[in-house]
Amino acid sequence: MTRIGHSDLDVFPLNLGGNTFGWTSDQDTSFAVLDAFVVAGGDFIDTSDSYMASIPGNSGGESETVLGQWLAARGRRDDVVLATKVSRHPDFLGLAPDNIARAAEASLQRLQTDHIDLYYAHYDDPSVPLEETLGAFDSLVRDGKVRYLGISNYSPERISEWLSICEANNFAKPIALQPHYSLVVREPFESTLRPLAEKFDLGVMPYWALASGFLTGKYRTQADVDGAARSRIVDGYFTTEGLAVVDELAIIAVTRGMEIATVALAWTRQQSTVVAPIASARVHGQLDALIASVDLELSDAELHRLDTVSALVTTN
């Protein structure tokens, strides 16, 4: 287990992504994934109020709804650390104080719970004074509806401003940072965001830690990419340099008797400030490779090999 920042949240070092729930995983499949995750010792689940509003036929909140149904059916609320986000739901866009309050209430209803353990600002909203946004988040903490706060997709300058405002106003300080980070997208996290995580004691939960499936080795030819649910995203990684990373992962995976995804997540987990990489499983059978990464300790030589080949990747 790993502690998040200065909080008392001690979590499994793999954060199960809920973006597939209500999208590529129907309710029964989602329940099976969640059941298997907690049986394996997992207790940390990440979602957003906007998942998956972008899918035709969805309106947003589908993932939270499935999670809430699972929590109610299984009676597991006290057994999990639940993270969700605000600012991108079509009905609750932005970070104005009244919007944050209404969005939080909607998330609580969908999740069928009276509190959110970790509540992220999903994306910055420059149209609202940051002090007003943080005041609204602080009110949620003081009211007991949110235990801790997190930051996702903010610039280094805005993160520093966030902490300064908290200090000046005695607002609840964030404990977590959720950046885009993986073996094929190492910047800007390593040069500009990780130093802030170290300075402000922010536990890091990288999203797209498997690069939307690219770092599982499932996309080795253009034919593999064409027609995939995440083809638009994966296309950005499908380069000579990106494939070289997958090749190196495959060599280590064979030597270790592990899956490629297991090695990729282990590399991410072993990076400074990282608490728990976020990875999702569309079906129950994909979980084993993810869970195995928690106990895999790559050697210094293996880490160096992956550092070297991934440094050549220029995707962002």
In short:
By secondary structure, this protein is an alpha/beta fold. Helix content is 42%, strand content 13%. It has a domain at 2-178: Alpha-Beta Barrel (TIM Barrel).
Chain-wise SSE layout:
Blueprint: E1 2-3, E2 10-11, E3 15-17, H1 27-39, E4 44-46, H2 62-74, E5 81-86, E6 88-89, E7 92-93, H3 97-111, E8 116-121, H4 130-142, E9 146-152, H5 156-169, E10 174-178, H6 189-200, E11 203-204, H7 222-225, H8 231-234, H9 240-256, H10 260-269, E12 278-279, H11 287-292, H12 300-310
Parallel strand pairs: 3-4, 3-12, 4-5, 5-8, 8-9, 9-10, 10-11
Antiparallel strand pairs: 1-2, 6-7
Helix pairs in contact: 2-3, 3-4, 5-6, 9-10, 9-12
Please give a handful of descriptors for the protein shown.
alpha/beta; two-stranded antiparallel ribbon; 8-stranded parallel sheet; 316 residues; 12 strands; globular
Report on this model:
This protein has a domain of 177 residues: Alpha-Beta Barrel (TIM Barrel), CATH 3.20.20.100. Strand 9, helix 5 and strand 10 form a beta-alpha-beta unit. Helix 3 runs parallel beside helix 4. 50% of the residues are buried. With 316 residues, the protein is α/β, with parallel strands linked by helices. It has 12 helices and 12 strands.
Counting H and I runs of at least 4 residues, what is the number of helices? Answer: 12
Q: How much of the sequence is in beta strands?
A: 5-15%
In the CATH hierarchy, the architecture of one domain is Alpha-Beta Barrel
N-end to C-end Cα span: 31 Å
Supply the CATH superfamily name of one domain.
NADP-dependent oxidoreductase domain
User: How do the strands of the widest beta sheet line up side by side?
Assistant: 11-10-9-8-5-4-3-12
CATH topology name of one domain, in short, is TIM Barrel
